[in-house]
Amino acid sequence: MSPLPDDERCSVVSARLDEPLAGSAPLARAWLVLEQPGPYGRQALTESHLPADVGAAVARAAEGTRVTVVLARRPGHHADDHSGSTSRRFWFAHCASGGTRMRSGSLDDAVLLRPDLPGIMRDAARGHLPPWGSKDDEPLLLVCTNSRRDRCCALEGRPLAAELAKGPYGARVLEANHLGGHRFAPTALLLPSGFLYGRLDAAAGAEILAAAQEGRLAALDRMRGRSSGPAPAQAAAIAVRIEAGAVGIDDLDVLHRVGEHSVPVPLGLAPERDEVRLEVRHVDGRAWDVRVRRETVAPDRAESCGKAAVAAVGWRAVDVVAAARWA
Predict the structure, then answer these.
(1) Three-state secondary-structure class, residue 55
(2) pLDDT tens digit string along 282-314?
(3) Rounded to whole angstroms, how far apart are CA atoms 258 and 276?
(4) What is the pTM of this model?
(5) Within 13 Å and on the Cβ side, how many CA atoms surround 315?
(6) CA Rg, the chain, in Å?
(7) Three-class SS of residue 118?
(8) Closest Cα partner for 200 from 141, 250, 140, 137?
(9) Exposure pattern of 141-167 as b/e (b: 16+ CB <10 Å)?
(10) Could you report how far apart the first and last alpha carbons of the chain are, in Å?
(11) pLDDT tens for residues 153-191?
């Protein structure tokens, strides 16, 4: 198959269509990042120099738990590393609002082969991280760069990661194997808060890192959403953040409006109807009634380079109205 012309790459087409970023973040309550140098295949957990038994065990353990496992490496040239190391750096973050936390350190591969790993994953998704390493409060930014998943991530993600690595927070920048949403490349994940971004440039990435050091969010117009909530809730929260200038990481909570009641948003919220009513609450007592609508941006476009064209569908906030204070 001949390579696509640049103007037909998925990220270029998505930007041209103005496909909404908000509401496009993948759903994950926790993220486990394992450092693994060297090249990555399409399925990096089992197609890299991570030991095959470790990659397979981690993939099985995470399945169905709302924990996403990511391989990461330092930005720059990636030698074909065959060192056979049996320990690695890790970062394990729980990213739900009000329960954000992360631990990091060095982890022996034998821990990842333990039979209780699925239970550890399930506990992490509920906010109970294992006692590995130590508490880590420093923000970490992962940039997707894996060409085997999509060449847009390599062409646009690698230069971004390299540039950010030169900055004052360069030690907290990693390349990642896959974050979803290739068409929004360059994409990035901010841990431990779990916010994802798309169509980043170096200036916006540096701003995100600097703000995160102070417990703030930046580049709201590049935000895809917080991975701990479903797509409609992501879109509603971003609309309120932009409307109200709410930049505190845990400023907002999103509830589902059912009649006159507000209830927790189910993680599987994907209603048959194309419109959802949500209530977004600020920690200072303010609240907003937000309607989000599922819209077709274009009849067809590829979600990733080389894939078949499908309808470009996304969630968009169509009304953000101040509501009665909740406290």
Answers:
(1) helix
(2) 999 999 999 999 988 877 887 778 788 888 888
(3) 9
(4) 0.94
(5) 29
(6) 19
(7) helix
(8) 141
(9) bbbbbbbbbbbbbbbbbbbbbbbbbee
(10) 59
(11) 889 999 999 999 999 999 999 999 999 888 898 999 999
